[in-house]
Amino acid sequence: MPYLDWVQWPAMLVTVLSAWLIGSQRPGRRMAGFVSFIFSNILWVAWGLYAHAYALIVLQFCLCLMNLRGFKKNFERQ
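Now predict its structure.
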């Protein structure tokens, strides 16, 4: 599945966009940032499985838990 080689690029772009959104003062943008971060976690896990990058997969699960926590905290503040 050589097309999975390319998954890392959209994952990287979504991660960068998410980080930018998380830094916003607007709650709606921060929420979008957390949602897109979770999407990037999924993309990184897909690529990590393909590349046998198991440390990356574990990292993405840990980061996803933190993103879910941030989403919840941001949701409670609205």
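The chain has a mean pLDDT of 94.
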